[in-house]
Design a protein that fits this description.
29% of the residues lie in helices and 21% in strands. The protein is of the alpha/beta class. It is globular, with a radius of gyration of 14 Å.
Length: 90
C-alpha cells in the first residue's frame, strides 16, 4: 500500500496534463462517461506562454459549475494567467 501511494505521488508530479475538479465532480468515477469534462483549450486557452488565458480558464470553470460540476482539463503546455481565477463553490 505504501508503494502504491509513492507511485501515485510520483505519477501526479510527472503528469504532463492538469485536471481541475469542480464542485460536484465525483472522483471515484473519474473515468466514467457520467462525469462531464471540459477542455480549457476548446474554451480558448492557448498554450504558448504569452497569451493571457485568464478568461478562457474562468469560462471553463464557470461552465462546469453552471452544469452542476465536472472536470476541467488543461492540456500540457505553458499557460499564462495574468488575473485571478475563481473556482465556483457548490
Amino acid at each position: 500500500m505504501q508503494l502504491q501511494r509513492l507511485w501515485l505521488a510520483a505519477l501526479l508530479v510527472l503528469a504532463p496534463d492538469l485536471t481541475v475538479r469542480t464542485a460536484g465532480a465525483q472522483s471515484p468515477a473519474e473515468n466514467s462517461p457520467a462525469v462531464v469534462r471540459w477542455n480549457a483549450a476548446r474554451m480558448g486557452a492557448v498554450a504558448d506562454g504569452i497569451t493571457d488565458n485568464t478568461q478562457a480558464f474562468q469560462k471553463a470553470l464557470d461552465t462546469a459549475h453552471d452544469a452542476g460540476g465536472g472536470v476541467v482539463e488543461v492540456p500540457a503546455g505553458r499557460y499564462r494567467v495574468n488575473g485571478t481565477l475563481s473556482i465556483p463553490a457548490a
